[in-house]
Amino acid sequence: MFCLGITAPVTAQAQQKNLRIATFGQGGPMEKAAAAYLIEQYKKLGVQLEFVNLPGNRALQESNNGRLDGELMRKAGLRAEYPNLLQILVPLATTNTVAFALDKNIAVDHGWDSLREHSFSYETGTKLIEQNTQGFSTGHAEQNIKTAFRQMLNKRVELIVIDEQAGLQLVKELGLEGTVHMLTPAISTIPLYHYLHKKHAALANKLEILLRKNH
Fold this sequence. Notes:
By secondary structure, this protein is α/β, with parallel strands linked by helices. It is 30% helix and 26% strand. It contains six helices and ten strands; from the N terminus they run E-H-E-H-E-E-E-E-H-E-H-E-H-E-E-H. The two termini are 31 Å apart.
């Protein structure tokens, strides 16, 4: 289990509800901030959170079938593919999807279409990237995004496509500043939303009302 470094405090209230929320990936600053915010908001509703890190697609499957209670945050519109997930219609964050490269002169001026011309890797289960590059012959999903960066260093792929904050964190962790460059402009900028399983519909309504008050 990957720990975001944030846990909700244990309470003595016997009636408190506990939810297990899926996350995936490395858990960058954006995810940590969203997790901390949700812990505080759920606490107001008498709910304690536990975050369970899984590979991206498996996380969605576990949330959709009810073995987990929801997703920390994902792109809008997942219910078309995962009908048991309720989208909380208040954005938690905005993600910039960007490309990192050894060659800082690669042009990415045409958004997703820019990726048709270059080999690229991304983390398995990142629905935003999967759906927007469907049919591209140049893309490859990698279970471990750090492995993808190593592939780029070995010149097996030209680009890594990832959330901006997560990518910058990984470049720093891997000691690649000055070697790997973030390309501009961003490939895409979209809001991200929290999801709950439909068995928590009443709670989802209460949470959405609470988040709207703070938005």
